[in-house]
Design a protein that fits this description.
- By secondary structure, this protein is mostly helical.
- Helix content is about 75%, strand content about 0%.
- The protein is built from 9 helices and no strands.
- Helix 5 runs antiparallel to helix 7, helix 5 packs across helix 8 and helix 8 crosses helix 9.
- The longest helix has 24 residues.
- The chain is extended and about 85 Å long.
- About 10% of the residues are buried.
């Protein structure tokens, strides 16, 4: 270390002295130890899912959750089994979009009436449980539909045709040509 300067009684350290000091090595060691120590607030995805599953009363509330999962399974099977039938794909897609759009209102309704069908209130004001259990699987099914090229093209075609009919000035003439062909 260099000799003390006249500024108070603080020693003046150069960069090398500071890097070699025991104080800095202690701070580095404690930071590394703190980093390597397991954080009790840090959880993995598996821990989050296990906590979510443990929080649900499956014996008492399992019946309405089974119905909900059954409906979602039905939508999934409709998408897979009728993947070449465009009108069914369109119907399922529009239904899924409508259900997801209405999920905030459904969550509020279920929050108000949870005592009639459940043992505890799963439906908070932010809709986390309802989003995970209801909207999440429906969004996954909708993304599955949109990822299939045939279905995506058909959906875009029907949406484009519908928007053209609703907002284009030629909608009346297109409708009359369609009626003459049919």
């Amino acid at each position: 270390m260099r000799e003390n300067c006249c500024v108070g009684k603080m020693p003046v350290l150069n960069r090398q002295d500071f890097a070699d000091s025991q104080f800095v090595r202690d701070i580095e060691r404690s930071a590394i130890d703190e980093f390597n120590r397991e954080n009790p607030y840090e959880q993995t995805f598996y821990n989050d899912v296990a906590g979510f599953v443990a929080a649900v009363n499956w014996k008492e509330d399992g019946h309405w959750l089974a119905v909900l999962f059954g409906i979602q399974l039905m939508y999934f099977l409709l998408v897979v089994c009728f993947r070449r039938v465009e009108i069914i794909q369109l119907g399922v897609f529009v239904t899924i979009c409508g259900l997801i759009l209405a999920s905030e209102y459904v969550n509020q309704f279920l929050h108000d009436h949870w005592r009639e069908f459940s043992t505890q209130d799963y439906f908070d004001e932010h809709g986390v449980f309802f989003s995970v259990v209801f909207s999440g699987p429906l969004l996954a099914i909708g993304f599955l539909q949109a990822s299939c090229p045939d279905v995506a093209f058909a959906l875009l075609f029907y949406i484009d045709t519908t928007l053209t009919l609703c907002f284009d000035g030629y909608s009346l003439s297109w409708y009359s040509v369609t009626l003459r062909i049919c």
